[in-house]
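Example A, followed by Example B.
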Amino acid sequence: MLIKIKKITELILPKKIFCLISIIYQSIKYKSYKYLFYKVSNDKEINEKNLINISIDKEKIILNLKNSDLDYNDPELSWHYHLLAGLSDNKKNLCILEIGTNLGKLTNFISKMFKSSEIYTIDLDQKDELFINSYNREDEIYRDNFLKERSINLNKKNIKFIEMNSLDLLSNFEKNKFDIIWLDGDHTNPQVSMDVLSAYHLLKKNGILMTDDLIFDQNSRESHLSQGLQPVKYLSDIKKLKTFYFVKRVIRRNAYAKKFISFSIKI
């Protein structure tokens, strides 16, 4: 009901007034004055400084996102889309691995950004209890619709989908070395640490590992659900990776729950 009211209000009111009302509402909802005064521009500045440090062209990102009907300044768009749009290269034959397929929307996006590259994406077997009992997939109708939508998104010549547990990454890809790995599987330990270490070993030298949903604030209400920072930081501290941290979304709710995406280069 609230979502419907929000959509109607957004259509009726001028954009600036709607945004102001939204900010005040969120401040009351989360009982946080920080939300009201949070400077979103600081998060954008962090990300754009990082783009300069890793030599990714902002204008290239804007253009590639626009060509995919995505907006660089959309506060709900996760910055892994920005990074992959900036890395986009349809001239090189790269080898790319995605750990955690979900609906395959990102996989589809990657296939467009890297048309001449080979993209592997893995997720749990659809009959695995871990797969069935997560993300509302225990509902059979929902699960069937989920699988149909995923199948459509993955129907690209340069995508290879494999149903497997990421525990078996090294044994399944022992002959493969990847240029880019996007890690968005199980966010909790011990699995996430194993995935980070496996991904590191599967990367080519100077290859890029990006890891989703890292949380620095251990007092965050979601810190127990996202534990990928420790293994990434460990490999960075011992000089195996050179890592930059991007704010996941440039959005006001970072005032009370901020997540990051790591962008790591194998040394």
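Example B, a separate protein, is given below in the same form.
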Amino acid sequence: MTQAILQGRTSRPRTIVFYAVHGIGKSTWAASAPTPIFIQTEKGLDDIGCDRFPLAESWADVSAQLAQLCSTDHPYKTVVVDSLSALEPMVFAEVCRDKAKKNIEDIGYAKGYKFALDYWRELTTALEWLQKNKGMTVVLVGHSKIVRYENPETEPYDRFEIDIHRDASAMLQRWADEVLFANYEVFTSEKGEGFNKRVKAIGDGSRKIYTNERPAWKAKNRLNMPDSIPMLKENGWAEYAKYISK
């Protein structure tokens, strides 16, 4: 059978993994996306005033909420899962229930984390369906953690990564169109010499979203974005959306 040849760029809703340091305003940024509905796996949305499902307490709750979005008519243009870091224990609990184990480590040889990937794939499959059939943008919010990275070309160093297991993190990063990392802008100054030398951190609270990978963090984008964009306090989504329209 002859296959059609596709040419040029295609406009479509985006899939975004957005992770950041604690308290920077991850949920507020996601809430400024077009007409969002939140699947909340942790507390913290009450003060934002966004539309949201009741707090999910299990993988079954998350699955039911996704199914409702898939099967009903609704006005929402963005689905936000907040957060991946709080969803992961629910995934692990479901794996343990299926395998009749008390702890995911009890499965042995790190197999539990491989079984968990099946549930993450179930999540991305549902989200892709919403993207393609409901025209919904997807935002997955995550906390950050600092991990030691064993680079084969250099000495080991620390960097920011998504606060979930490395296998799930790698899978979601491959799947997403954009992986964005947000942090406060910090500068350092040195005072003194020798044993009296001190390094002082300086910052005015300015926030940036980093769009390309650097030694200190994981990130990527498919929109030819600059290395960083401002994380605005009001309507932060608008700064990112400029590059979608381009």
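On Example B: The mean pLDDT is 92.
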